[in-house]
Amino acid sequence: MDNTQKQIVRTVTGLALGVVCGWLMYRFMDGNMVARVNESVLVPVRDVFLSALKMMMAPVTFFAILAGVINVRDSGMLAKMGGNMVIVSLFMQVLVAFLALMFAAVIFSGDLTYMQAGIVPADKAMTATQQPSLTDLLFNIVPSNIIDPFRGGNILQVMFMAIFFGIILNKIGVPEKVRKAISFAFNFSIAAMKVIVYTIPVMVFLSMASLISHTGMESLLELSGLFGGLFVGVLIVWIVGMLTVLLFCRISPLQLIRKLASISPFVFSVSSSHARLPFVLNFCSEKLGIDPQLASFSIPVGVQLNKAGNCVFFSLMTMLMMSIYGIELTPQLFATLLVSVCIMSIAKPPVPCGGIICMAYLLSMVGVPAEAISVVVCIDPLAAMFNGVCNESANITTSFVLAKSYKIARSEERFSRNAETD
Description:
Elements: H1 3-28, H2 31-70, H3 75-81, H4 84-107, H5 134-139, H6 148-152, H7 155-172, H8 176-198, H9 200-215, H10 218-249, H11 254-269, H12 273-286, H13 292-305, H14 308-324, H15 331-347, H16 354-366, H17 373-405, H18 411-421
Helix pairs in contact: 1-9, 2-7, 2-8, 2-9, 4-10, 4-14, 4-15, 4-17, 9-17, 10-14, 10-17, 11-17, 12-13, 13-17, 14-15, 14-16, 14-17, 15-16, 16-17
């Protein structure tokens, strides 16, 4: 069992203990006693964790992206990424995000405002921001100075600065001392974030105990529905994959989807994309007939580009929290969310709590109190398994479409032969 799987086990344990503790409080304590326990113990400890998480969000995002940009020295690789692979990947992700937001708007259309009592009531929230328009989102990405994005936690502006500074450093040449300094800052940020991540099970316990003690088991049923939504999200990604194959390749996608379904249990059980890589490469070559040279390029690059699972999770989680805080989904907000979800999905930093960092930005953007991120912390480690299936399915589909587009040989006969024997 690797460290990620151990963390999931600890998180599930904290979740279960929190539910039991919260139910006992709900069942055997009166409302005043529950409120005192929450205000004197559960909420203050939870807020310490949230403060520590917010403290590290901007630094870890900035140095993760900056380190990644300055370490890309092969300009030919960047040129290839600007071609058909990016087009196919973006097509899939925009369509997945659109369908996921529509689906989430339907399943979370009921009145869930009662759940505020177990998180933080809107009138007692420390922070809540005004919803930006799509124009604000796109044109305010450039900060007026380099301090405010870190101070205000504007992750989109932090990402812009990291990419911009990284490109400039590559253009003028990065001295080895500077490269080592950036690498050190990145490793330091990761080490600090790992300490925070190690406390997540305690955070999950406190958050669930607080939620269940106020709302009873009814709120747990709503959160359980979220996992049903994640399962439907996998189906959405497969449907979009079928449409992509039909549109770009003009062939039946049924055999591809059947083969994706066969590898999905393995992907679900192996949390690390790096650990899955050799098996996925072999699957692409042996089951789909994709040329190994193409797969060895498209699959590793696609790990960073194909983030359909993030689109599904971010859409479901944002819509759930909007429903809890009674925020209306207007057409303008839907368009802003669609763009934001796609950007955050691709730009999610490959660091511990990367998804939580992106969700914190999305929640603040739609006007959900910052304290609500505690619910995301409970769900994120478990949702990562569904995200992996979605991301890998999109990645394999993109590689398959590239193989067909470039007519890289073995694909036709090997795919047909395996279709008959599988």
